[in-house]
Amino acid sequence: MLLSTLVLVCCTALPTSNAQAADGSPAPRVVESRSSSEPPEPAVTTNAKVTKPDAPLPQLTAANLDPVSSAEPGTPARPPILAAMKPATAESYETSRQRKIWYGLMAASHGAAAFDAWTTRRAIAGGYGTEGDPLQRPFANSSAIYVTTQIVPALMDYMGHRMMRSEHPMMQKFWWVPQAASTGVSLGAGIHNDRVVR
User: Fold this and answer.
1) Which of 10, 77, 97, 116 is deepest in the core (most CB within 10 A)?
2) Pairwise CA distance, residues 188 & 194, whole Å
3) Assigned domain for 26 exists
């Protein structure tokens, strides 16, 4: 950014009278044609600062804003200027039905994780086996397993919510899969643990 600023300042500081082409030859001068009624402009000295005029601004009239009502017969109507504008946010929002399903899946996945933790503690306390997940094994003999089993469902809830609000149509269609998969895995593990104890 600093380099581009320096280049910009150096290029604007060059005098226009000493401008030369890349091959060393003097730059061609532009000669404007004048009508005979206009008086000649005074010569510009090399020390005088030349300012360029501003670009003309478009005029907003009723014809620009409402082309359908002001169009003449036979001329194609232009679309309004405001029609080409995009909304301020590109993020899509979920419907109330999707939000209710998301909350239901969230409750189901966290409930299934709590069931898995309870059956795991019961199986280990009864001496029927050990925790198969190496990440959960340090917490299997304490009540901390109830907290640690809630991490994966919370991540799946977040992922499902992001997929629901995604702009990609495939993500929007299958937003419920992470929560459903988390619920199924926890419920399956809990049922397995319960059968081992019985």
Assistant:
1) 116
2) 10
3) no
> In the chain, how many domains are there?
1
- Residues 186, 149: contact at Cβ < 8 Å? yes
How wide is the angle at C-alpha 27 spanned by C-alphas 21 and 30, nearest 5°?
A: 145
Length of the chain: 198
- Distances, alpha carbon 119 to alpha carbons 134, 137, 174, in Å: 17, 14, 30
Q: Which of 22-31, 52-61, 113-122 has the lowest mean pLDDT?
A: 22-31
46: how many CB neighbours lie within 10 A of its CB? 8
> Collapsing DSSP states into helix, strand and coil, what is residue 95?
coil
Range of the domain at 115: 102-197
What are the phi and psi torsion angles at 20 (to 5°)? -130, 155
The pTM score is: 0.53
Residue 44 Cα to chain centre, angstroms: 52
Return the residue matching tokens 């994780």.
113
Within a domain: residue 18?
no
